[in-house]
């Protein structure tokens, strides 16, 4: 599929069409015939640097409620931050628009830069929403990934209306943000739910140290106290620790990095050998990385080169794997991966 402006994410609608999010703050629907319909009513985004319109997720009940959820770098005064909105997708007369737009989550505090917004959105089997964000990169900000009173460097879990689930790990604890699910994360741009309803994420390391994790309620995943990467300068991060009591080890890590963005856990029939595998988009590795799992550990890693930066990965309703490409100053394509005839 050609001719999309620089895009960040996509999702399948129940009728097989594809809803796409463009970094500049636009949405488009791609029909089965390739026809593209622009969606009006997207709120303003801060598209500088790594910001923009980020992930999107049609409601699990989209056929009934027509709701679309999306994360974005929200302009604020001062600074900006990752926020999540929801809106109703209305289509009539060959046109499409968002109505009843409402922000249901805001990462706080705001920060004044253009880096490490995350973000991915994943619904669990009960219709609750996981939200991944970044720690905003700056040395002055990154330590807040360890601060349970801050929204930087976290995975959150909320209800679809923005309410806080009563069984979240920090509910009722003074000084702690009740929407936090897990903490100690750097910049999460890959997340998916497995067949058992468990969340998996892949996050960017610095120079080395991209991590596959299975975030559990209330646990600390270490950043910036613990990492298998180094500063971009080559210097160690903090004390240079790779393990520390009270922090979780990654399930798997990469050095050098793949620069992960997008994750699908395959359940289809077209690739029986991939069933249950993690399929990760790679920006630097320019392809998809297939991780076959055994007992929640990586058994094998396979790389499928696509000669393009891969920003998002999804399993389609036909069982094929779809990958979204990006060029920093150009357009995007959606590639369909299927077995050779």
Automatic annotation (TrEMBL):
Pfam families per UniProt: GSDH
InterPro entries listed in its UniProt record: 6-blade_b-propeller_TolB-like, Glc/Sorbosone_DH, Quinoprot_gluc/sorb_DH_b-prop
- Where's the Glucose/Sorbosone dehydrogenase domain? 5-330
Query: Protein name, please?
Result: Glucose/arabinose dehydrogenase
Naturally occurring in which organism (per UniProt): Enterovirga rhinocerotis
